[in-house]
Amino acid sequence: MDRDFVYYEFTNSLCNECLKVIPAKIIFRDNKVYLLKYCQKHGEQLELLEHDIEYFKNKRIYDKAGTITKTQTEVKKGCPYDCGLCPNHDQHSCINILEITNRCNMCCNTCYANSGKGKDLDLKKIKEMIDFGAECENGRGEVLQISGGEPSIHPEIIKIIQYAREKYQYVMLNTNGIRIAEDEDFVKELSEFKGGFEIYLQFDSFKDEVYEKIRGRKLVDIKKKAVHNLEKYNIPITLVMTIERDINDKELGKIISYGLETKCIRGVNIQPVAYFGRKNGNLDRSNRVTLTNVINLIEEQTKKMIIKEDFAPLPCNVERVALTYLYNTKNGFLPITRLDNIKKYLPYVNNTFTFKIEDALTNGKDIIFGSCCNPLKFLKDFKKFVPRDFMKWDLEKRSKYVSENTFRISITSFVDRYNFDIKSMQKECAHIITTDLKRIPFSSYNMIYRSKYHDS
Ligand code: SF4
Ligand code: SF4
Ligand SMILES: [Zn+2]
Questions:
Q1: C or N terminus of the chain, fewer CB within 10 Å?
Q2: Distance between CA atoms of 227 and 224, rounded to whole angstroms?
Q3: Contacts 24+ apart (CB under 8 A), 45-48
Q4: pTM for this one?
Q5: Which region among 113-122, 267-276, 360-369 has the lowest average model confidence (pLDDT)?
Q6: Residues 6 or more apart from 261 whose CB is under 8 A from it?
Q7: pLDDT > 90: what percent of the chain?
Q8: Counting Cβ atoms within 10 Å, is residue 303 exposed (0-12), middle (13-18) or buried (19+)?
Q9: How far is Cα 206 from Cα 85, in angstroms, rounded to an integer?
Q10: How far, in Å, CA of 73 to CA of 86, rounded?
Q11: Looking at residue 372, what DSSP letter applies?
Q12: How far apart are CA 90 and CA 87, in angstroms?
């Protein structure tokens, strides 16, 4: 008799119960990818890792060397207990996350920050953390997400964004949208940040019953009002959708269409729900949403307007980030992969989460592409999708045109104690800046370290 699975490779994982580092097999079974772990104390554990074996195998083609960065800790106990960053970490900060408050004007049961009551960090501390993050990246950081809690209710939020803009190339405000919907003067102030700034708007559904279930209150009107206000002042938006089985997994297509139809919405980021924070392990994970599951659902729900092959793993973290671009044509939006083989350029993209076609197109410089790529060839290929005199326009006009005519769909899947595999952990490129000036990968922070910092 044969086993009912194929043993693909070997990794380290964590025990679901005791969080000890334990060995795990990555196996293929029933057309899916699983982790088969064994803890001496808590026995065998089987956890779903991905829904698509083909994608899982092929993603490695896009893998490339990580970017060296400064470290703050030493290797002592082994990953993930040395964060961070320790010298074992294999990727620099494509994104830094700064939690400026743990107060929130909502109390979601999916909140990994366990936010609600709490306090704000003061401006001096925040500046120190921003300086530190930028310093770790040779003086200027790539992306800073200002988060919380709900960062928009911090009394000094405008000053904080102002300061962050000086130290980072790109700043995002991660918000539930309530203040944006209710306080137009605030939106007006935000509109002063032209360029290098966007709203990262939590947007899970078009149904109030979904919001009531996962966020504890009706929110559809608030979300729409927030988008309306941001459009009025021309502030770019990325919608962020936390996706969960049988809650909102059927709404992907609708949210993508809404994004495409709404001028200020420049993209959607989809995050399969991770099992940390208030969302702990009592739920059925046997059919949890995975990155490749999202890709398949998008194919289904956009009626093949976007297909599986349009997605590529992002080279900075091929394990847990995938993306595609759509481009506006006479016949509506089309995935760029349909027009040209963009995938052939991906191996040459620098280690950055903010790989932006608009940057490559508008600047015509190799700020995005490493020396091994030929940016001119890239531009030539993409020129067929822009107006003929495009390259003669000034930078602002080009930039505006490209950002209004491209749409980015990205999928980010985080590492929790159940789907932990060591490579995904060590490649994670979104790092929280802590008050004691460390950088801790988002996933390990939520799995292990948050309780240490939360009330301090
Ligand atoms: S997650 Fe990264 S920083 Fe943390 S212990 Fe592992 S390698 Fe080190
Ligand atoms: S998920 Fe966001 S909006 Fe909800 S409680 Fe947490 S911080 Fe607040
Ligand atoms: Zn155990």
A1: N
A2: 5
A3: 45/15, 45/16, 47/13, 47/16, 47/285, 47/418, 47/419, 48/285, 48/286, 48/287, 48/288, 48/290, 48/419
A4: 0.91
A5: 360-369
A6: none
A7: 66
A8: exposed
A9: 39
A10: 5
A11: T
A12: 8
Q: Is the CB of 121 under 6 A from ligand 2?
A: no
- The token pair at 424 is 């995904």
**CA 287 to chain CA centroid, nearest Å:** 22
The number of the ligand nearest the C-alpha atom of 175 reads 2
> In this structure, what token pair is assigned to residue 426?
């060590």
**How crowded is residue 296: how many other Cβ atoms within 10 Å of its Cβ?**
15
Q: Are 411 and 295 in contact (CB under 8 A)?
A: yes
Residue 335 belongs to domain spanning: 315-407
153: Cβ below 6 Å to ligand 2? no
Q: What is the mean pLDDT of residues 320-342?
A: 79
Question: E strand or H helix at 274, and its extent?
Answer: none
CA of 440 to the centre of ligand 3 (A): 24
Q: Please name the residues in contact with 428: beta carbons below 8 A apart, sequence gap of 6 or more.
A: 91, 317, 320, 414, 415, 441, 442, 443, 444
In a domain, 182, yes or no: no
**How far separated are the first and last CA of the chain, in Å rounded?**
56
Distance 219 CA to ligand 2 centre (A): 13
d(CA 182, CA 225): 8
Reported confidence tier of residue 14, pLDDT bands at 50, 70, 90: very high
Ligand 1 lining (C-beta closer than 6 Å): 79-80, 82-86, 88-89, 425-426, 441, 444
Q: Kindly identify the ligand whose nearest atom is closest to the C-alpha of 148.
A: 2
* 3-state SS string for 8-74: EEEEEEECCCCCCEEEEEEEEECCEEEEEEEECCCEEEEEEEECCHHHHHHHHHHCCCCCCCCCCCC
In a domain, 333, yes or no: yes
Asked if residue 1 belongs to a domain, the reply is no
- Spatial CB neighbours of 342, under 8 Å, sequence gap ≥ 6: 312, 325, 336
Whether 353 shows a pLDDT value over 60: the answer reads no
In a domain, 399, yes or no: yes
Centre of ligand 1 from the C-alpha of residue 38, in Å: 22
| The total number of structural domains that make up the chain | 1
